[in-house]
Amino acid sequence: MNLIDIVQLVLLSAVVFFTLGYLAHRVIPHWLQYWKNRLLSPRYLKPASVWMRSSSSTKPTSAETKK
Known about the structure:
Elements: H1 3-24, H2 27-39, H3 62-65
């Protein structure tokens, strides 16, 4: 195996891997995000709860004022 064979192998692998990387650059981020969402715990999400208004911000309704 001489120097020309090594250069040809390097160029062939560069062409193959650059082409595969270019074709897969749209698929891989979506795939990674899908698995991150499935496997890792959500660190920055707040727990779901019922939001209630404070009593000071509510205005009396017309039924309450007629009493």
